[in-house]
Amino acid sequence: MIKSSVARRYALALFDLAREGDVIDQVGAELVAFAGAVDQDRRLRALFYGRAFPPRQKNGLIQRAMGDKLSPLASQFIALLVDKQREDYLGGIMAEYGKYVDRYRGVEEVAATTAVPLSDTEAGELATKLSGAIKKQVRLVRTVDPKLLGGLVLKIGDRRVDASIRGRLDRLKERLAASTGAISGEAVQK
Q1: I need a labelling partner for 151 at 20 to 30 A (CA). Which of 43, 49, 58, 135 fits?
Q2: For the whole model, what pTM was predicted?
Q3: Which CATH architecture has domain 2-102?
């Protein structure tokens, strides 16, 4: 919990600065490129996440390794993470930054879980219908869970809509159990 709140604070500060400088997309893309470089290059990964060098020296080495691939804002932000020893938060910060960008642009991420994979056409139609229903642009994230048997489960923000066959069967089972209990309770009272 603490880690996510720290990531949110850093992401919000970065987003505010990027918005003021009108470089929202550029900073986001540079962070993705930096994280990709760190993931792919074991020496850069060891340098970024390791504690072998003091922050000032570490920042200098990172700057040399990245060259002119980072804007001043992205470069200063990464240096701040190193100075504050918050390198482990980079992934969470990037995820939170993306959420701030989406909110700013009126985009809602919707998780759609289905029993079988949705085709691109089906996903597009679902996203269009959801966009109309929630009055926002929708970015659909698809997952598959064969246990659903059929139908789908949607997660929109904090809301969950279960229109799966498994969900219907579970609700029917609960109603039957409740009504059976009520019937047997009536028989005991008579």
Answers
A1: 135
A2: 0.73
A3: Orthogonal Bundle (1.10)
